[in-house]
């Protein structure tokens, strides 16, 4: 059968999150890093997720990267395109959700798409167009302090309207409650009125199922990974997809265990604190990084001593720049927002490269932008998806040039994962010893 779904994800953790949900719903899924340059065999693959780093870059770059991914996916005959962004709708007034969605619609000659950011398994729901994280509105969830895209407005119709010249509408819960046909009629009615983007309410999995039934034949859908849980059943109903037993299996993991964290999201800050109560960690500070290479050398020495000395490597250690909002603000005031972020990303990416070369084989990275920087520095082009650690975060595996054993890699979105995620991730890998 041919490729069913082609997804374009605006960051690497988001790509893994979507790929994870597709695998769990029975789609054989390949995650590629950037648009593949050479030949790629897609035999026995149902979905490809192209991971871009287009969330926080200038909108024109995000548009051109996304269009390149679209053209590649269309050349692979993907039946439906999915533009994946964050379940917390991470963006600014400049974009990049609106400009990318508009460019994809234009390129595909489609008149309408849906916006379904919700991921109820992780507490992201939408009601009357307002995004909630757990029981808080988005603008009171911690996302208002995000270093790159502070989210200070929970009304997504209003947020998106600032990013697109086109009309933005709403598919409200009372319509969804009437089922897929009612939802489809509502969407058709909005399209007839020229509404190009429709923010969709979603409270739970049954809403996702109704939405999937309504939009399965849309050329382009957009949203978080929640919709990816529900679409595969619709593909099967249409006969586009075969039933598969186990869509995700990895080789056994080996090598020293390391956590790198550049996320300053509330969940990550809790995970860092919890981990440091029982494990060793090294804190990076952008102000020190701006002074030169000393802090990187110190971090390397810290990790080498614990990971590669005799008997080391089994217990994970943490290197982190994650810091509370006031500390982040201070660094940003002194260095500039983008420069502070880049300094940290470059440092963590360089550390990943050096330490993987020296024997780290199990690596957790926290943060979407951070994961993008690390994965790019490691020269990774494809990821296979394995077992889920927590909703939205699976173990993945890849081969690094010149290494015999695979690298096991978990890319954790900033706000995902339980408080003990960092240690539990490695426990899960040890217990599984996946065949
Ligand atoms: N202490 C710090 N000061 C300023 N910026 C930081 C600091 N620590 C991390 N950053 C930057 O904040 C951004 C966090 O984004 P990201 O990695 O996507 O995390 P999340 O997944 O939580 O959004 C990155 O660009 C990172 O380099
Ligand atoms: O949809 C989500 O929440 C995630 O898949 C995601 O994109 C998170 O991004 P980061 O928090 O920047 O990792």
What's the structural blueprint in terms of helices and strands?
Blueprint: E1 5-9, H1 12-24, E2 29-33, E3 47-51, H2 59-75, E4 80-84, H3 97-108, E5 113-116, E6 124-127, E7 130-133, E8 136-137, H4 156-161, E9 167-171, H5 173-176, H6 180-192, E10 195-200, H7 205-215, E11 220-223, H8 226-237, E12 256-261, H9 266-276, E13 281-283, H10 286-289, H11 294-307, E14 317-320, H12 325-335, H13 337-358, E15 360-366, H14 368-377, E16 382-390, E17 393-398, E18 407-412, H15 421-432
Parallel strand pairs: 1-3, 1-4, 2-3, 4-11, 5-10, 5-11, 9-10, 12-14, 12-15, 13-14, 15-18
Antiparallel strand pairs: 2-16, 6-7, 7-8, 16-17, 17-18
Helix pairs in contact: 1-8, 2-3, 6-7, 7-8, 11-13, 12-13, 13-14
The structure holds adenosine-5'-diphosphate (ADP) and ligand LB5GJZVW.
Domain Four-carbon acid sugar kinase N-terminal: 5-231
Protein name: 3-oxo-tetronate kinase
Domain Four-carbon acid sugar kinase nucleotide binding: 258-422
């Amino acid at each position: 059968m041919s490729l069913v779904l082609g997804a374009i994800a605006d960051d690497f953790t988001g790509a893994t999150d979507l790929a994870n949900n597709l695998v769990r719903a029975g789609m054989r899924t390949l995650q590629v890093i950037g648009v593949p340059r050479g030949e790629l065999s897609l035999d026995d693959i149902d979905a490809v997720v192209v991971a871009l780093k287009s969330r926080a870059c200038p909108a024109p770059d995000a548009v051109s990267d996304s269009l390149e991914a679209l053209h590649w996916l269309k050349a692979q005959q993907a039946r439906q395109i999915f533009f994946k962004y964050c379940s917390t709708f991470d963006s600014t007034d400049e974009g990049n959700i609106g400009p990318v969605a508009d460019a994809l619609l234009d390129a595909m000659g489609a008149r309408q798409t849906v916006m379904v950011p919700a991921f109820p398994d992780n507490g992201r729901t939408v009601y009357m167009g307002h995004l909630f994280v757990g029981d808080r509105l988005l603008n009171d969830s911690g996302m208002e302090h995000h270093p790159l895209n502070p989210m200070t407005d929970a009304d997504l119709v209003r947020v998106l309207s600032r990013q697109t010249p086109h009309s933005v509408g709403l598919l409200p819960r009372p319509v969804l409650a009437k089922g897929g046909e009612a939802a489809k009629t509502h969407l058709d009615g909005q399209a007839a009125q020229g509404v190009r983007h429709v923010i969709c309410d979603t409270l739970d999995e049954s809403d996702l199922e109704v939405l999937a039934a309504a939009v399965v034949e849309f050329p382009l859908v957009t949203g978080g990974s929640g919709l990816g849980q529900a679409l595969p059943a619709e593909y099967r109903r249409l006969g586009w997809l075969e039933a598969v037993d186990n869509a995700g299996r990895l080789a056994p993991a080996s090598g020293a265990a390391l956590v790198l964290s550049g996320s300053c999201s509330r969940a990550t800050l809790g995970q860092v604190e919890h981990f440091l109560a029982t494990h060793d960690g090294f804190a990076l500070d952008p102000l020190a990084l701006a002074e030169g290479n000393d802090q990187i050398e110190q971090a390397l020495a810290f990790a080498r001593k614990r990971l590669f000395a005799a008997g080391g490597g089994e217990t994970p250690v943490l290197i982190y720049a994650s810091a509370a909002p006031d500390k982040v603000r201070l660094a940003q005031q002194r260095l500039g927002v983008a420069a502070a972020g880049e300094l940290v990303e470059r440092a963590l990416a360089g550390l990943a490269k050096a330490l993987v070369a020296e024997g780290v084989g199990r690596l957790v990275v926290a943060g979407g932008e951070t994961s993008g920087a690390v994965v790019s520095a490691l020269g990774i082009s494809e990821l296979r998806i394995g077992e889920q650690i927590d909703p939205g975060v699976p173990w993945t595996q890849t081969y690094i040039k010149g290494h015999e054993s695979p690298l096991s890699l978990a890319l954790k979105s900033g706000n995902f994962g339980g408080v003990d995620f960092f240690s539990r991730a490695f426990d899960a890998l040890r217990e599984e010893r996946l065949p």
